[in-house]
Amino acid sequence: MMSDPAKAVPLSCHGHSRPITHISFSSVLEDEQYYLVTACKDSNPMLRDGMTGDWVGTFIGHKGAVWQARLSSDANLAATGSADFTARVWDTHTGECLHTLTHGHIVRAVAFPPQPRPQIIATGGFENKLRIFDLSRSESTNGSPTGSNGANGTNGIAPSNGTTPSTPTPSYEIGPGVHDGPIKSVIWSNDLNVLITAADDKTVRWWDLRARSVAAQYQLEGPLGTCELDSVSSNPSLSIAAGKSAYFFSGTQPGQLLKKVTTSKDIAAVALHAKQRKFVTGGGGDTWVRVYDFDDEKEVELQKGHHGPIWTISFSPDGKMYATGSEDGTVKLWKFCTDAYGLWK
To answer: What pLDDT, on the 0 to 100 scale, is given for residue 154?
Structure first.
């Protein structure tokens, strides 16, 4: 049993002005560094040092709430989906907007395949469509970095001029007409041929991209919250929050439910640490972070610090801490190891 990491004071990451909608870590890079990208209703996604939470810069260009943000596996690219009916792809070194992908409605979900410098991206949202865009055949948006320190004090993250490509980026839809509600999450599994969608029709679908058809699906019993792959394990499982339950699926066998844990609280977000056999939840009904034992399903820790509901949770790629994003506009980093780590000495 891990000794009590709850005594460590969480690190607070400020800078956003409205509720946090999504957080996502990169993989650990060659220099043992990793990054965190945060999405927010203030329309300004931010890049941070993953270990300390220190602000690196802000991606400027969206005109509406940003619902989801993800980093490529090598952290060279960031993708964002927004209420301004666009998804955008950014260069994380310069802050340049490389691609603006126009949709017919709000974009809620974005996903890169798990490969360096990916040339395709999947999106989903209020169009009820799973779409894949070919970035290699896109004319880049004309971003204009304005100096080594960027613009508006953004430390290297420079705004684009907001223009869109003259020729739309080629895309195709997977499974037309299948989704009966907005797609809230798109996950690219470690198998490049399998995409996972979770939608407001309370259905999780595993898509075979070779056949462009559903390989498996599962009906959830409550309103959908987060849907994420375990970021710690080399063989990650899929964790989904819905209603008062947390669902854990195999990361390699489409549709295979490993475990369902039902609690007395509504769960809006869940993240699993498979090696520690623990999972963390947050909800819309209170402001507390709860840690559960995966095997006996009992609550083992209660963390307080946020001042609003918790909508998103993710473990760092090394599993030594986790991050939470809240309605209160802050991201907090919570130590999940007994040794000194990062700013916790």
So the answer is: 39
